[in-house]
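Hi all, long-time lurker, first post. I run a small reading group and we've been trying to get comfortable going from sequence to structure in the token notation. Rather than ask abstract questions, I figured I'd post a concrete chain and ask someone more experienced to write out its structure so we can walk through it together at our next meeting. Sequence below, copied exactly:
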Amino acid sequence: DETLQNKVQERFGGRLAVTIARPNRTWITVSAEELPELAKWLKDELGYYHCSTITGLDSGDNIEALYHVTAGGGELTLRVAVPKTNPHVPTLTGIWPGVILYERELQDILGFVVDGHPDPRRYLLPEDWPSGVYPLRKDYVYTFHEEPPATRGE
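-- Answer (accepted) --
Happy to help. Here is the structure in token form:
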């Protein structure tokens, strides 16, 4: 963990915040602009070949993408926070192809704009879902629509 922290600091200087949460569990806070460089370096130089999932969350004025990557039994989370008013993150499909569906999910349910994504179609929500409405944002208000009872014989 400290070896990883030292390597990240040596390569990126003080531009990234590295936190060791517990053994084999490290967090790196990175800007959206530096995310592809960090991801490529982690894969090519340190063997982080697998992004197991991306978690998204609404943290108030920002939305965050948490990229969970693994290598050699250790877990690493890359944390990217972007303002809701400009929610752009670059695609990482060229580095970890398996993120393609996770990035589409972030677009649908949290309103991220994944720049350069090869297939930005809706993934989870129906095509007629209202534009600008994101069900996992804190400001989303669920409205229950009662279905009319079915009538027999019609």
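A couple of things your group might point at:
Strands lie at 17-22, 25-29, 50-58, 62-71, 74-83, 88-90, 113-115.
DSSP finds three helices and seven strands in the chain.
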